């Protein structure tokens, strides 16, 4: 009897995660169910797929071959899904969008509301993630990302520059203030190196492994630190302590897989978001304070 596709997925999940519990969680099944299914697969094939060790499950050559076959099958299924999605004539169906938490709360959510009002036949699934999801596997259809180097296998549009500056509280001493900083895990350590060049380790009061929470930490007086200008300029309790820092500037990209760029719902969404970002560029690019200065001079 041929082995079912779900069994290939189970073997691949165990091989990638090295244990039954995380593999079962990934597939949305009970660990005991995963154990019974794996035993049944091995019995049916007449081959051992994993060596069981205290440290976890290690695939045998047969297990490695089955996991590799599952990966190829998954890629073919994803390619078929992309091809079918690309042939849709009108904006309808499910659209998966991914973005980091700060982009969702500060930029994307109002855009999603207006998009749904315009295209009610499109159902949206929002995946909030700091990590870059695999658009080739259809983990998402469209990604809104702040990055300097978008993946070469994706296509899309550069929407704006994202400027960063140093911010602190409106009141209070800033010359000898403590700092808050993104950790080394954020943007390859770009921000932590920036802070380290301006403050010794003893002056860093708080490190955060995401951009989310930086604004709140500075607002609470924990320390001064870098923020994207479109966030920092909106907070009445904060003030800029520097101009936009060129070494921290990034780009806002809207990306999709090449097979999906002509899909009606993807094309409609990308056109919609690109148009919505145009009036936001001054704030994203840190030109908000320049406009205030111009108004004062007038």
The secondary structure category is: alpha/beta
The CATH topology of the largest domain turns out to be D-Maltodextrin-Binding Protein, domain 2
Which CATH first-tier class of the largest domain would you pick?
A: Alpha Beta
What is the assigned CATH homologous superfamily of the largest domain? Periplasmic binding protein-like II
Task: Return the string of H and E elements.
Answer: HHHEEHEHEEEEEHEHEHEEHHH
Q: Which radius of gyration do the C-alpha atoms yield?
A: 24 Å
Name the CATH architecture of the largest domain. 3-Layer(aba) Sandwich
Q: Low-confidence stretches at least 5 residues in length (pLDDT < 50)?
A: 290-298
Helix content: 40-55%
Q: How many beta-strand elements?
A: 12
List the domain count as a whole number.
3
Give the helix tally: 11
Keywords: DNA-binding, Transcription, Transcription regulation
Family: Belongs to the LysR transcriptional regulatory family.
Organism: Methylorubrum zatmanii
Pfam family, one: HTH_1
């Amino acid at each position: 009897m041929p082995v079912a596709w779900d069994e290939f997925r189970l073997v691949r999940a165990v091989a990638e995660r090295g244990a039954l519990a995380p593999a079962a969680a990934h597939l949305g099944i009970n660990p005991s169910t995963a154990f019974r299914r794996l035993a049944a697969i091995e019995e049916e094939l007449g081959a051992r797929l994993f060596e069981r060790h205290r440290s976890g499950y290690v695939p045998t050559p047969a297990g490695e071959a089955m996991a590799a076959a599952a990966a190829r099958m998954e890629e073919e299924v994803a390619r078929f899904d992309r091809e079918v999605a690309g042939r849709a004539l009108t904006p309808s169906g499910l659209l998966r969008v991914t973005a980091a938490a700060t982009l969702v709360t500060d930029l994307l959510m109002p855009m999603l509301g207006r998009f749904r009002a315009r295209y009610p036949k499109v159902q949206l699934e929002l995946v909030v993630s700091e990590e870059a999801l695999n658009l080739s596997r259809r983990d998402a259809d469209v990604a809104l990302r702040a990055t300097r180097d978008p993946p070469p296998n994706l296509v899309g549009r550069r929407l704006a520059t994202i400027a960063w500056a140093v911010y602190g509280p409106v009141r209070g001493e800033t010359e000898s203030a403590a700092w808050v900083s993104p950790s080394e895990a954020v943007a390859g350590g770009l921000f932590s190196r920036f802070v380290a060049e301006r403050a010794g380790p003893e002056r860093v009061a708080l490190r955060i492994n995401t951009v989310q929470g930086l604004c709140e930490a500075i607002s609470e007086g924990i320390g001064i630190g870098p923020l994207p200008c479109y966030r920092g300029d909106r907070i009445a309790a904060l003030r800029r302590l520097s101009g936009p820092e060129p070494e921290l500037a990034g780009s806002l990209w809207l990306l999709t897989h090449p097979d999906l760029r002509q899909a009606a719902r993807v094309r409609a969404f990308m056109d919609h978001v690109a148009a919505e970002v145009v009036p936001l560029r001054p704030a994203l690019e840190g030109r908000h304070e320049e406009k205030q200065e111009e108004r004062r001079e007038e």
